[in-house]
Design brief:
By secondary structure, this protein is of the alpha+beta class. The protein has five helices and eleven strands, in the order ββαββββαβββααββα. Strand 10 and strand 11 form a beta hairpin.
Length: 244
C-alpha cells in the first residue's frame, strides 16, 4: 500500500485566535506565501450581517435568451450503429474547422467527437410559475461565489430523438446520449463541459466559460456591495467624530 499519495485538496482543521487562523492542534499553518484556499465555516459564526447576506443570498442570472443555439457534444465510436433517421443531425468535429474553442475543452478526441444542434424554446406551464417567465432562456443561479444551479426552459431536439421538447438542458443531454451514445451505461453528463454555446465571435465554447464569466461578474457585485457598506461605516464614524 502506498501511503505517500497526496490528495488534490487537503482539508486542515483551523480555529481563529487573536486575529489569525491557526492549526486546530496548535501553531501556524505552514503554507507558502500567497497560498489560496477556502474556509468552510458555520454561517452563524459570521459577525457581519451584510457580509453574510452577500455570501448566502441566491442570485439568478439570465445568460441566454429564447432561440439560443447549443452544440451538445457526443462521443460516437466507429463501431456504433445508429439508425438512418438519426445520422443527418450528427455533425463531426472536422465539420466545424476552428469554430470550436478547443482550448477550453478539458479533453477530446477529434475522431470520435460529434455534435448535435439544439435550441432554447418556450417554457412549460409549470416553468412559467417556477422560473417566473413567459420567455425561453437559460439561467445560472449563484450563491456567494459558487454556482448552485443551472435552469432552462424547454429545449428543441431533432424529431427522431424525442416526440417533443426536452424539459431542460440537462434532460436534452440525457435524451441525446441515450439516442446516440448507445454503448454508455450512464447517460447523464456535465452540461458545463458537454454543452457548447456560441460566443459573440461566432466560436463555440463550453458553458463552463459562461459560468466562470458570470461568477466573475457576481464577485464584482459582491465586492461593490461590501465596499459600499465599508464606506457607509466610515461616513458614520466621521459624522460621529464631528458631533463630539
Amino acid at each position: 500500500m502506498n501511503t505517500d499519495l497526496k490528495p488534490r485538496r487537503l482539508r486542515i482543521p483551523v480555529h481563529y485566535v487573536d486575529g489569525a487562523w491557526e492549526f486546530q492542534l496548535g501553531g501556524v499553518i505552514p503554507v507558502k506565501e500567497g497560498t489560496e484556499g477556502e474556509l468552510v465555516i458555520d454561517p452563524a459564526q459570521i459577525t457581519d450581517k451584510v457580509f453574510l447576506r452577500a455570501m448566502t443570498k441566491a442570485v439568478k442570472h439570465k445568460v441566454l435568451g429564447e432561440g439560443a443555439s447549443f452544440l451538445v457534444s457526443l462521443a460516437i465510436k466507429p463501431r456504433a450503429r445508429l439508425s438512418e433517421e438519426l445520422l443527418p443531425f450528427l455533425k463531426s468535429f472536422s465539420e466545424f474547422g476552428n469554430q470550436i474553442a478547443t482550448m477550453f475543452l478539458p479533453s477530446f478526441n477529434p475522431g470520435t467527437l460529434h455534435f448535435v444542434s439544439v435550441s432554447l424554446s418556450k417554457p412549460r406551464d409549470s416553468q412559467i410559475r417556477t422560473l417566473e417567465t413567459r420567455d425561453g432562456g437559460l439561467w445560472l443561479v449563484t450563491q456567494g461565489l459558487k454556482t448552485t444551479a443551472i435552469e432552462s426552459t424547454t429545449v428543441i431536439l431533432p424529431s427522431p430523438v424525442a416526440g417533443g421538447p426536452a424539459a431542460s438542458l440537462n434532460h436534452a443531454l440525457t435524451l441525446l446520449s441515450e439516442a446516440y451514445e448507445t454503448d454508455r451505461l450512464s447517460h447523464t453528463g456535465n452540461v458545463y463541459s458537454r454543452v457548447l454555446y456560441q460566443g459573440h465571435d461566432k466560436r463555440w465554447y463550453p458553458l463552463d466559460v459562461l459560468r466562470k464569466a458570470t461568477l466573475e461578474d457576481q464577485a464584482h457585485a459582491i465586492g461593490g456591495e461590501l465596499w459600499d457598506e465599508f464606506m457607509r461605516k466610515m461616513r458614520a464614524l466621521r459624522d460621529k467624530s464631528k458631533r463630539k
